[in-house]
Design a protein that fits this description.
It contains four helices and no strands. By secondary structure, it is mostly helical. The chain is elongated, with a radius of gyration of 18 Å. The chain has helices at about 1-35, 40-50, 55-65, 75-85. The longest helix has about 35 residues, at about 1-35. Helix 1 (about 1-35) runs antiparallel to helix 3, helix 2 crosses helix 3 (about 55-65) and helix 3 packs antiparallel against helix 4. It has a domain at about 30-88.
């Protein structure tokens, strides 16, 4: 009984700790990209990405990866990161 309690408690604490660190990392990444990006709006970024600008595609991918300014989508983020890598 004691073992089960400790096992359940450790799982709960581990998941709570890892959840907090993901959120803080995601916010930091997006803020860093925003500082280095020349695009003033999401629309500017999307039109540059459609014109195959690798930086714009990468920054847009980071927005999807963090859910900042767009709906969170790991699939869309991966597709954009892959496209950015192919573009250079």
């Amino acid at each position: 009984m004691k073992f089960r309690f400790l096992l359940i408690l450790s799982v709960i604490l581990t998941s709570a700790c890892s959840e907090g660190s993901q959120n803080s990392t995601q916010g930091t990444l997006t803020k860093d990209y925003r500082k280095v990006s020349d695009y003033k709006s999401k629309e500017d970024l999307e039109s540059a990405a459609k014109a195959n600008d690798p930086e714009a595609v990468f920054v847009l991918g980071s927005m999807y990866a963090t859910g900042e300014g767009v709906e969170f989508s790991q699939k869309k983020a991966f597709e954009l990161f892959e496209k950015s890598a192919k573009l250079g």
